[in-house]
Amino acid sequence: MMTDPIADMLTRMRNALTARHEHVQMPVSRMKREIARILKEEGYIREYRVHPAERAQGTLEIDLKYDIQNNSIIRTLQRVSKPGKRSYVACKGMPKVLNGAGIAIVPTSRGLLTDRQCLAENVGGEVLCYIW
Predict the structure, then answer these.
(1) Three-state secondary structure readout of 84-109
(2) Using alpha carbons only, how large is the chain's radius of gyration in Å?
(3) Whether this model's pTM surpasses 0.85
(4) Are residues 105 and 35 in contact, defined by beta-carbon separation less than 8 angstroms?
(5) Residue 82 — φ and ψ, nearest 5°?
(6) Confidence band (pLDDT; 50, 70, 90) for 1?
(7) Could you give the 3-state DSSP secondary structure of residue 19?
(8) First-to-last C-alpha distance (Å) of the chain
(9) What confidence tier does 54 reach under pLDDT thresholds 50, 70, 90?
């Protein structure tokens, strides 16, 4: 039993980026699919796909993105809110990741949003992770 599937997703991506893999696979969930959607919209990954499985849970495959010199676009994946210590912020207290160069992923009442989208919609929530 896995206690923190989001941390597992970020660790799998971090390990795949370190090893210069083109793809990374992991068990799928709705939250992981939404995180992959945000990473695609923000330009951190090339593509993501959900492969159905014989059982209840399928597989999420993420195509990682590298620049011309084969350096990964994602420099850091940092988990902020953990099962043992949750980190909630109001809209006015939304963190600036690398002075706006990175993103914070925040689940809100309006779905999973980035820090900039939270400021635009005036909502707060739990800060899941920082990515830059």
Answers:
(1) CECCEECCCCCCCHHHHCCEEEEEEC
(2) 15
(3) yes
(4) yes
(5) -115, 165
(6) low
(7) coil
(8) 29
(9) confident
